[in-house]
Amino acid sequence: MIQKKICLLGAYAVGKTSLVLRFVRSVFSESYSATVGVRIYKKEIGLAPWGIKLIVWDLAGENELVRLRTSYLRGCSGYILVVDGTRPATLEKAIDLQRRAFQTLGPVPFVLVVNKNDRRDQWSIEAFALDDLRESGWTCLRTSAKTGEGVELAFQILAEKLIDAHRAATAS
Amino acid sequence: MAEPTDKPRTADQRLIEALSPTIQHALRRSLRDERRAWSEALYPIMLPSVRMAVWAAFHEAVESLNRLVEASLSWRSWQWRLEAWRRRKSFAEVVLLRTLVYRVEQVLLIHRETGLLLHSVASKDAATKDPDIISGMLTAVQDFVRDSFNGGQESPLNELRTADLTVRIEQGPWAVIAAVVRGYPPAELHATLTAAADLVHQEMAQELREFDGDAGRFVRARSILEGCLQAAYRTPPPSSYRKLWVLAAAASVLLVVGLAMFVQQRLRWSDLAARLNAEPGIVVTGHYDSGGKHVIEGLRDPLAADPAQFMADAGIDPARAALRLRPFVSLEPALQLARAREALSPPPGVALRLEADALSVEGAAPRAWIRRLREANLAALGIRALHLASLRDLDAETLRQAMESEAIRFEPGSSRLSPQQQQRAEKLAALLVDWAKAARELGRDPRVEVVGRADRSGDAAYNLRVSEERARRVRDLLAASGLPEEIIAINAEGDAAARGADNGEDAAYRTVRIRLSGDSAPSL
Fold this sequence. Notes:
The structure holds 2 protein chains of 2 kinds.
Chain A: E1 2-10, H1 16-25, E2 38-45, E3 52-59, E4 78-84, H2 89-105, E5 110-115, H3 128-135, E6 140-142, H4 151-171
Parallel strand pairs in A: 1-3, 1-4, 4-5, 5-6
Antiparallel strand pairs in A: 2-3
Chain B: H1 6-33, H2 35-70, H3 75-87, H4 91-99, E1 100-111, E2 117-122, H5 131-149, E3 159-161, E4 165-171, E5 175-183, H6 187-203, H7 205-209, H8 222-226, E6 231-233, H9 240-278, E7 282-290, E8 293-300, H10 307-314, E9 321-327, H11 333-344, E10 350-355, E11 358-365, H12 367-375, E12 385-387, E13 391-393, H13 394-404, E14 408-409, H14 419-441, E15 447-452, H15 460-480, E16 488-492, H16 496-499, E17 511-517
Parallel strand pairs in B: 8-9, 11-12, 11-13, 15-16
Antiparallel strand pairs in B: 1-2, 1-5, 1-6, 3-4, 4-5, 7-8, 10-11, 14-17, 15-17
Helix pairs in contact in B: 3-4, 9-10, 13-14, 14-15
């Protein structure tokens, strides 16, 4: 079974830690506690020998005081950009983070998720806001760490992309 | 030419004298400049003797530890007993704490770029943490230190320390070796780790450069890492002054204990007999003094509590008692349960209960043990019924999770299985057959739901049909592989999941997945 390092990137309090806890342990907590630095989780997807072991680096979200440490991105094979559907500024932040991740890592696979789909009534990001991104080839999904909706799928899609990239690299 | 026999020898000596400085110089230089080549050449010769020496040292340390524990009357051991009592720790723990100099509990080989674990080893019975997570965290901490204190300069973090754990980190160009050490690591450990890091880089240079996430190629590093699992124990220096203390302490303790025993003995004998009689599996028929000893007569089931323990608890010297307890088989439930426990040796996490000759097994156990349990001759243990309703199959739970996360994929609009997906489905089928068999053996009612999905590229009716065809295709394959047809149900979800999603054309929606149920214990 191959293993790959992936990162979760996004503004503060968009639900990065909630997503990874939902994915790895199937739990959700309403309380918010900011991640300091980085926490690391692992989860295996699928059966050997086709499966993949994901080592997930849950990085501290960016705010006015904390900047992303790009050294944490080193050796990362893919990443998930997390946006809070109720805060449009977090989408801009995700686009900015993608640009910086691209500078560090080059064209590695990534997925953008718009989280907090359980609070659709409070959403202020419209569907068309993502259309431009989709047209330029981004994969965008809606997720809810609270209900679990789309979470497994988002990680699974990224895992498939990583396996494809791995096959392409070993074939060449 | 006068002494032809001497001449060549003298010439040889001259030659040696002439060449010596040059050869020495060349050797010195070669040693300095080509350390790798030298260490590569010397490694196979040196390592076995190094291992022998380490083994001998370790063996000796363990021996002396044993001696220490056995010599329970030494002055030091009384100090430790006092300390154990004061700190509410076990005596063995205190001995280990006081005699352990250091022990390498875990050695990790970490890929430097990604922080992914390449290989790890751990010393026996050490409580270690998940090496994958440690690798990641160590790498993150190093990144943090580099960023925060060195302005991006390459300055490796060599050591992390907590109250009783030290992590020593040895940096190589491609990989890092980290050793988790309990106690105080000696300076020599640094050299051992450096040598190990060098060796890994020499022997696996290509694998390290080409690492793409497949850690399977680094199994070869095991023997190198195991060479780093070193330990040392300290023994107290013997001194005649101490020996005097030991003797004095022993004499006074014996005197006090003896005096107290003499006074209380009489009362204790009858109390002991009564307590033994109350114990399941022990029957005391009489007790009397005979030949300077106190004789206790009766019957005892071999699985009943040890009478010596009762004497120890009552403060009675076992040497003064003569136990004449004949063996018999007791039918008391506690003994029956003990007999069952001995015969079945349940794994940790499994509890046995006995009620009216019926054995209830609760908890979670590996499948192999459950099979053994079902084949055991329970009637011979006096057990007439076996209740497994609260027993969970550990292997099935792990397997179930893996199987449910598997997805068989299809080309757009197609329900045909590509050769690779066919292979994938066949492997899944083989696992499902096993899972269902194991669940049925436990008297459960396993069910497999085959869920077909389509992306949203067609219209709803078409997508529903495609998803159903996909599910049927996989159902037929499962049935053909030996999974009983009556436990399989198919569920065509069409494009329901894809329709609401943003990326509804994605390959992830053209799948067949399985949902499993009915294998767990019924909840009460």
